[in-house]
Design goal:
heterodimer, A: about 110 residues, mainly beta, B: mainly beta, four-stranded antiparallel β-sheet, about 55% strand, globular
Chain lengths: ~110, ~110
Protein backbone atom coordinates (compact mmCIF):
# COMPACT_ATOMS: atom_id res chain seq x y z
CA UNK A 1 0.00 0.00 0.00
CA UNK A 2 2.29 2.73 -1.32
CA UNK A 3 -0.19 5.64 -1.17
CA UNK A 4 1.64 8.78 -2.27
CA UNK A 5 5.28 8.47 -3.29
CA UNK A 6 7.58 11.43 -3.76
CA UNK A 7 10.96 11.43 -5.42
CA UNK A 8 13.61 12.50 -4.65
CA UNK A 9 13.62 12.71 -0.85
CA UNK A 10 16.51 15.15 -0.68
CA UNK A 11 18.13 17.47 -3.20
CA UNK A 12 20.63 20.30 -3.17
CA UNK A 13 20.53 22.73 -6.10
CA UNK A 14 22.63 25.68 -7.07
CA UNK A 15 20.88 28.96 -7.76
CA UNK A 16 19.60 28.99 -11.32
CA UNK A 17 19.47 25.23 -11.76
CA UNK A 18 16.26 23.47 -12.67
CA UNK A 19 14.69 20.30 -11.37
CA UNK A 20 11.47 18.31 -11.32
CA UNK A 21 9.85 16.71 -8.31
CA UNK A 22 7.73 13.67 -8.99
CA UNK A 23 4.61 12.67 -7.11
CA UNK A 24 2.87 9.38 -7.80
CA UNK A 25 -0.29 8.01 -6.19
CA UNK A 26 -1.81 4.58 -6.57
CA UNK A 27 -5.21 5.27 -5.00
CA UNK A 28 -6.95 6.50 -8.17
CA UNK A 29 -7.49 9.89 -6.53
CA UNK A 30 -8.89 12.64 -8.72
CA UNK A 31 -7.25 15.57 -6.93
CA UNK A 32 -3.57 16.21 -6.34
CA UNK A 33 -1.76 19.05 -4.62
CA UNK A 34 1.71 20.45 -4.09
CA UNK A 35 2.52 22.25 -0.83
CA UNK A 36 5.61 23.81 0.62
CA UNK A 37 6.25 23.79 4.35
CA UNK A 38 8.40 26.44 5.99
CA UNK A 39 8.98 26.96 9.74
CA UNK A 40 6.16 28.96 11.29
CA UNK A 41 4.30 29.21 7.99
CA UNK A 42 2.40 25.95 8.02
CA UNK A 43 1.51 24.47 4.66
CA UNK A 44 1.12 26.73 1.66
CA UNK A 45 -0.48 25.52 -1.54
CA UNK A 46 1.65 25.94 -4.65
CA UNK A 47 -0.44 24.33 -7.39
CA UNK A 48 -3.17 21.76 -7.58
CA UNK A 49 -4.99 19.58 -10.07
CA UNK A 50 -8.56 18.36 -10.16
CA UNK A 51 -8.00 15.88 -12.93
CA UNK A 52 -5.74 14.59 -15.65
CA UNK A 53 -4.63 17.39 -17.91
CA UNK A 54 -5.79 20.17 -15.58
CA UNK A 55 -3.79 22.35 -13.21
CA UNK A 56 -4.44 25.51 -11.24
CA UNK A 57 -2.48 28.01 -9.17
CA UNK A 58 -2.52 27.97 -5.43
CA UNK A 59 -1.39 30.50 -2.88
CA UNK A 60 2.31 30.67 -3.82
CA UNK A 61 2.70 29.61 -7.48
CA UNK A 62 5.48 31.98 -8.61
CA UNK A 63 8.64 30.22 -9.72
CA UNK A 64 6.95 26.83 -10.09
CA UNK A 65 5.22 24.96 -12.88
CA UNK A 66 3.26 21.74 -12.80
CA UNK A 67 1.94 19.10 -15.12
CA UNK A 68 -0.48 16.24 -14.79
CA UNK A 69 -0.28 14.22 -17.96
CA UNK A 70 -1.39 11.04 -16.21
CA UNK A 71 -3.96 10.75 -13.44
CA UNK A 72 -1.53 9.08 -11.07
CA UNK A 73 1.36 11.55 -11.50
CA UNK A 74 1.76 15.20 -10.61
CA UNK A 75 5.07 16.87 -11.42
CA UNK A 76 6.39 20.05 -9.86
CA UNK A 77 9.07 21.93 -11.75
CA UNK A 78 11.47 24.65 -10.72
CA UNK A 79 12.81 26.34 -13.84
CA UNK A 80 15.44 28.52 -12.17
CA UNK A 81 15.88 27.72 -8.51
CA UNK A 82 16.31 30.51 -5.97
CA UNK A 83 17.40 30.34 -2.31
CA UNK A 84 13.85 31.40 -1.34
CA UNK A 85 12.66 28.05 -2.67
CA UNK A 86 14.60 26.18 0.01
CA UNK A 87 11.81 24.29 1.73
CA UNK A 88 10.20 20.95 2.33
CA UNK A 89 7.78 20.06 -0.43
CA UNK A 90 4.80 17.80 0.15
CA UNK A 91 2.53 16.25 -2.40
CA UNK A 92 -0.98 15.19 -1.43
CA UNK A 93 -3.95 13.57 -3.11
CA UNK A 94 -7.61 13.11 -2.36
CA UNK A 95 -10.84 11.69 -3.67
CA UNK A 96 -13.26 14.25 -5.04
CA UNK A 97 -15.64 13.64 -2.11
CA UNK A 98 -12.84 14.02 0.46
CA UNK A 99 -14.31 11.23 2.59
CA UNK A 100 -10.83 9.89 3.32
CA UNK A 101 -9.26 13.28 3.79
CA UNK A 102 -5.98 14.14 2.13
CA UNK A 103 -3.12 11.63 1.83
CA UNK A 104 0.36 13.08 1.97
CA UNK A 105 3.66 11.90 0.62
CA UNK A 106 6.80 11.74 2.77
CA UNK A 107 8.18 15.01 1.44
CA UNK A 108 11.19 16.32 -0.47
CA UNK A 109 13.72 18.44 1.36
CA UNK A 110 15.17 20.92 -1.14
CA UNK A 111 18.06 23.22 -0.44
CA UNK A 112 19.05 25.91 -2.92
CA UNK A 113 22.51 27.35 -2.39
CA UNK B 1 -12.38 32.50 1.30
CA UNK B 2 -11.90 30.39 4.38
CA UNK B 3 -9.12 30.86 6.90
CA UNK B 4 -7.91 28.83 9.86
CA UNK B 5 -6.37 30.08 13.09
CA UNK B 6 -4.47 27.96 15.55
CA UNK B 7 -3.88 30.06 18.62
CA UNK B 8 -1.31 27.91 20.38
CA UNK B 9 1.94 27.89 18.45
CA UNK B 10 3.95 25.97 21.03
CA UNK B 11 2.66 23.78 23.83
CA UNK B 12 4.81 21.98 26.38
CA UNK B 13 3.28 19.35 28.65
CA UNK B 14 4.33 16.59 30.95
CA UNK B 15 3.21 13.04 30.33
CA UNK B 16 -0.32 12.28 31.60
CA UNK B 17 -1.38 15.93 31.31
CA UNK B 18 -4.51 16.75 29.39
CA UNK B 19 -4.29 18.44 26.02
CA UNK B 20 -6.51 20.89 24.21
CA UNK B 21 -5.38 22.61 21.01
CA UNK B 22 -7.50 25.40 19.65
CA UNK B 23 -8.66 25.74 16.07
CA UNK B 24 -10.98 28.42 14.77
CA UNK B 25 -12.04 28.97 11.20
CA UNK B 26 -13.75 31.73 9.34
CA UNK B 27 -16.25 30.76 6.71
CA UNK B 28 -19.94 31.43 6.57
CA UNK B 29 -21.04 28.19 4.99
CA UNK B 30 -20.80 24.49 5.70
CA UNK B 31 -17.34 23.09 6.17
CA UNK B 32 -15.39 19.87 6.42
CA UNK B 33 -12.83 19.88 9.23
CA UNK B 34 -9.63 17.92 9.73
CA UNK B 35 -6.80 17.49 12.21
CA UNK B 36 -3.47 16.21 10.98
CA UNK B 37 -0.37 15.21 12.93
CA UNK B 38 3.22 15.41 11.73
CA UNK B 39 5.75 13.47 13.78
CA UNK B 40 9.36 14.70 13.61
CA UNK B 41 10.78 14.10 10.15
CA UNK B 42 7.62 12.53 8.83
CA UNK B 43 4.70 13.46 6.60
CA UNK B 44 1.25 14.59 7.70
CA UNK B 45 -1.14 11.88 8.82
CA UNK B 46 -4.87 12.21 9.34
CA UNK B 47 -5.92 12.16 13.01
CA UNK B 48 -9.61 12.71 12.58
CA UNK B 49 -12.16 14.46 10.41
CA UNK B 50 -15.63 15.91 10.69
CA UNK B 51 -18.10 16.03 7.83
CA UNK B 52 -21.50 15.88 9.51
CA UNK B 53 -23.43 14.21 12.32
CA UNK B 54 -22.18 13.90 15.88
CA UNK B 55 -20.05 16.98 16.55
CA UNK B 56 -17.78 14.98 18.87
CA UNK B 57 -15.39 13.09 16.66
CA UNK B 58 -13.06 10.38 17.84
CA UNK B 59 -9.83 9.73 15.99
CA UNK B 60 -6.78 7.57 16.24
CA UNK B 61 -4.45 7.29 19.24
CA UNK B 62 -7.05 8.52 21.75
CA UNK B 63 -7.57 11.94 20.18
CA UNK B 64 -10.96 13.56 19.83
CA UNK B 65 -12.27 16.88 18.58
CA UNK B 66 -15.49 18.78 19.07
CA UNK B 67 -17.11 20.88 16.39
CA UNK B 68 -18.91 23.88 17.86
CA UNK B 69 -20.65 25.57 14.99
CA UNK B 70 -21.64 28.69 16.94
CA UNK B 71 -18.01 29.30 17.86
CA UNK B 72 -16.55 28.28 14.49
CA UNK B 73 -14.24 26.01 16.45
CA UNK B 74 -12.87 22.49 16.13
CA UNK B 75 -10.60 21.98 19.13
CA UNK B 76 -8.47 18.87 19.50
CA UNK B 77 -8.33 17.09 22.86
CA UNK B 78 -6.62 14.17 24.53
CA UNK B 79 -7.19 13.30 28.19
CA UNK B 80 -3.67 12.05 28.88
CA UNK B 81 -0.73 12.71 26.57
CA UNK B 82 2.29 10.49 26.08
CA UNK B 83 5.86 11.29 25.12
CA UNK B 84 5.11 9.76 21.72
CA UNK B 85 2.53 12.50 21.06
CA UNK B 86 5.36 14.98 20.56
CA UNK B 87 4.63 16.32 17.08
CA UNK B 88 3.23 19.21 15.09
CA UNK B 89 -0.55 19.38 14.79
CA UNK B 90 -2.40 21.04 11.95
CA UNK B 91 -6.04 21.97 11.67
CA UNK B 92 -7.54 22.20 8.19
CA UNK B 93 -10.87 23.28 6.74
CA UNK B 94 -12.47 23.18 3.36
CA UNK B 95 -15.75 24.66 2.22
CA UNK B 96 -18.27 21.96 1.45
CA UNK B 97 -19.80 22.26 -1.96
CA UNK B 98 -17.15 24.64 -3.12
CA UNK B 99 -13.48 24.24 -3.79
CA UNK B 100 -11.96 21.02 -2.53
CA UNK B 101 -8.82 22.86 -1.62
CA UNK B 102 -8.12 22.71 2.10
CA UNK B 103 -6.81 25.63 4.07
CA UNK B 104 -4.34 24.66 6.78
CA UNK B 105 -3.57 26.45 9.99
CA UNK B 106 0.03 27.33 10.79
CA UNK B 107 0.35 24.41 13.15
CA UNK B 108 0.93 23.85 16.86
CA UNK B 109 4.15 22.31 18.06
CA UNK B 110 3.55 19.97 21.00
CA UNK B 111 6.40 18.78 23.17
CA UNK B 112 5.65 16.17 25.83
CA UNK B 113 8.24 15.66 28.53
CA UNK B 114 8.54 12.16 29.99
Amino acid sequence: NAGVTQTPKFRVLKTGQSMTLLCAQDMNHEYMYWYRQDPGMGLRLIHYSVGEGTTAKGEVPDGYNVSRLKKQNFLLGLESAAPSQTSVYFCASSRSDLRAGYTFGSGTRLTVV
Amino acid sequence: AQSVSQHNHHVILSEAASLELGCNYSYGGTVNLFWYVQYPGQHLQLLLKYFSGDPLVKGIKGFEAEFIKSKFSFNLRKPSVQWSDTAEYFCAVNARGGSYIPTFGRGTSLIVHP
